[in-house]
Amino acid sequence: MARVHADITISLDGFVAGPNDGPGCGLGEGGERLHYWVFGGPWSYEHPTSGEGNSIDAEVLAGASEAGAVIVGRGMFDAGEAWGGKNPFDMPIFVLTNRITDDLPADFTYVTGIGEALAQARAVAGDRTVAIGGGADVIQQYLRAGVVDTLGIHIAPVVLGAGRPLFDGSFSADLRQLSCVQSPLATHLTYQVGGPGLSRTS
């Protein structure tokens, strides 16, 4: 059965997006700084240019592409304006939503309920990992459900001061650090969630 890996970028003070995130401003006010490591340097919604990046961040991104399916929430999907209606990844994307309408882009699979989304994602992923790609609410739901095997957190060297937190006090879990690599733009951490001697949820 496919393992489940949740993965997200946060600020040093724990936010995955700045204030007022939504369509046209998916990472919130000032939140572009979180993903400098993804784009290889400073970028913004108004000026979506990127730098050359570095080998460490590029290797982390390459590892993320090895998943067999990804699950995202409707909030992230809408904030990203459905990626222009085209799946930007080389894997199926399952969108968690309570609003399935005929006008949604056909390039994605829409599912109601985290259990059904995971079952469908595992069915197509085979032996590859199922990635839980965000946003924060979706990762929180899967952590509370106790089904996440590993958690990847990319800490950007920025303090946002406010926004959407990853850890909201609604769950707890024991973690074991598996890896830590650093670049000038992020610290990339991977944790085992639960397992021998560890508790997945409180």
TrEMBL record:
Tree of life domain: Bacteria
Residue spans crossing the bilayer: none
A GO MF term: 5-amino-6-(5-phosphoribosylamino)uracil reductase activity
InterPro entries, alphabetized: DHFR-like_dom_sf (IPR024072), RibDG_C (IPR002734), Riboflavin_Biosynth_HTPR (IPR050765)
GO BP: riboflavin biosynthetic process
Signal peptide: none
Gene3D superfamilies: Dihydrofolate Reductase, subunit A
Xref: Pfam families: RibD_C
Chain ranges of the Bacterial bifunctional deaminase-reductase C-terminal domain: 4-181
SUPFAM superfamilies: Dihydrofolate reductase-like
Protein name: Dihydrofolate reductase
Source organism per UniProt: Nonomuraea soli
Phylogenetic placement of the source organism: Bacteria, Bacillati, Actinomycetota, Actinomycetes, Streptosporangiales
